Structure formats: C-alpha cells, structure tokens
C-alpha cells in the first residue's frame, strides 16, 4: 500500500500491470478528501491516448516503478473522467466497481476505556 509515499514522487514514474506489461506513466495523483492519502493515479497510457485511473491502495512501488495488480485491458477500460479535476464520490464509486474493490464503509473508531473520570468531588467525600 502506498500510504507512506509522497504523491509528488509518483508523478512521472512508469506503471506496469500485474503481468509486468508497461501501461504508461503516472500523470497525476488524487488524494482522499477526508484523509489526504493518495488514493488514485491517472496513468497516461500512450502518446495519443487518455489517462486511465488506477487504485493506489492495492498497488506497489517496486524499484521506482508502480505495479498495479490488474490486467492492462481492465486498466485501459476504466471509466474516463478526464484529468485535472476533482473526482466526485460517484466517480470514485464507479472506479471501485470497475476494479471490483470493496466499497464498504471504513470500520468505526475503536471504543477506548479511559478509566474513571475525575469529577473533583472525590476528595470532598473523604
């Protein structure tokens, strides 16, 4: 998972599919609105081609190249939303469905037991 990578360092890196076939070059990186974590990359698939959106969560950066765990054909068939614009929640949902990724809600924050809260009256009772 690429959560610890500076998204600016992904721009210009070569991208490969699950079989090691070159897809193109990372053109843009899109961050999650809530967390600021890199979530999607737009891959320029050719000189006269369009950018294809790929999920960064299941992808890996190996020896300076981005490896995406999907076939080239699936990547090239991803919905085309154009680059340079914000991805709407509906567009992200379409991308998640296209790649067959889980779109369930994130798990709730764990309950924390902070112990007994002091009210300031404990000493008065003694």
Number of strands: 6
Helical element count? 3
Q: What integer value in Å does the Rg equal?
A: 21 Å
Shape, principal axes of CA atoms: globular
Strand content: 15-25%
Strand order of the largest sheet: 4-3-2-1-6-5
Approximate helicity band: 10-25%
Oligomer designation: single chain
Counting helices, strands and paired strands, the structural category is alpha+beta
**Poorly predicted spans:** none
- Secondary-structure element order, N to C: EEEEEEHHH
- Measure the end-to-end span: 55 Å
Mean pLDDT: 83
Largest sheet: 6 strands, mixed
Features of this protein?
alpha+beta, 6-stranded mixed beta sheet, 3 helices
Could you explain the architecture of this structure?
By secondary structure, the protein is an alpha+beta fold. It contains three helices and six strands; from the N terminus they run ββββββααα. A hairpin with a 5-residue loop joins strand 1 and strand 2. It is globular. The mean pLDDT is 83.
């Amino acid at each position: 998972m690429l959560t610890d990578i500076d998204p600016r360092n992904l721009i210009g890196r070569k991208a490969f599919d699950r079989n090691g076939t070159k897809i193109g070059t990372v053109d843009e990186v899109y961050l999650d609105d809530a967390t600021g974590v890199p979530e999607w990359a737009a891959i320029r698939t050719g000189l006269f081609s369009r950018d294809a959106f790929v999920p960064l969560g299941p992808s890996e950066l190996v020896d300076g190249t981005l490896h995406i765990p999907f076939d080239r054909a699936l990547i090239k068939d991803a919905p085309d939303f154009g680059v340079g614009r914000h991805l709407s929640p509906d567009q992200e949902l379409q991308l998640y469905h296209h790649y067959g990724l889980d779109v369930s809600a994130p798990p709730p924050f764990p309950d924390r037991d902070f112990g007994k809260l002091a009210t300031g009256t404990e000493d008065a009772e003694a």
